[in-house]
Amino acid sequence: MARLFTLLYDKTMGWSRHRHATRWLVLVSFTESSFFVVPPDVMLAPMALASPNRAWYYAMLTTVASVFGGLLGYGIGALAFSLIEPLLQQWDYWDSYLKARLWFEEWGGWAVLLAGFSPIPYKVFTIAAGVAAMPLALFIMASLAGRGARFFLVAALMRWGGARMEAGLRKYVDLMGWIAVLVAFAGYLLLSR
């Protein structure tokens, strides 16, 4: 049990070198922008770390697939919002959706750019952009800039770290993992009072 995070780390790095990893990266990047909950960073980072010479390629694929997925989210918002509105409420995305609408009213296209780069659920903004009938060209440009900035930053950090970072992470991954579990547990205890 003490080496749990090392085992997970080794498995993740193995998957990142799999011959179909690129296809999965594209699929996750596309679906996360409109309905899937796993961010593509969890695949992009280990893939770029495992193959630093392909980091820019992976970042470009992730960005393009994410923007195409964002167009699906935009279409959902523009054409089928009444169908997914109950899901947004059921899955606790409703407050994020309302915040996205306010951001659109206040900042317009900048809201999509910021959402594309930030950890705020991008899918909520893609759907809200469709509901708000944001100009499509502006939506695409803001999405490319925001998502591209985020994914190329992740790729740059992994490329910069390369094999040295991979070995260092593996050496300390169990310590970092158990510290994260303890911090999460302590946070839970503090917030549940």
From TrEMBL:
Report which superkingdom the organism of origin falls in: Bacteria
**Annotated transmembrane regions:** 21-38, 58-81, 127-160, 172-191
Is Transmembrane helix given among the entry's keywords?
A: yes
Show the GO cellular component annotation of the record: plasma membrane
Q: Which InterPro entries has this protein been placed in?
A: DedA_domain (IPR051311), VTT_dom (IPR032816)
**Which Pfam families does the UniProt entry name for this protein?**
VTT_dom
Domain called VTT: residue spans: 39-157
Keywords on this record? Answer: Membrane, Transmembrane, Transmembrane helix
PANTHER family given in the database record: ALKALINE PHOSPHATASE LIKE PROTEIN, DEDA FAMILY PROTEIN
Per its record, how is this protein called by name?
Answer: VTT domain-containing protein
Q: Which species is this record about?
A: Nitrosococcus oceani (strain ATCC 19707 / BCRC 17464 / JCM 30415 / NCIMB 11848 / C-107)
Upper lineage is: Bacteria, Pseudomonadati, Pseudomonadota, Gammaproteobacteria, Chromatiales
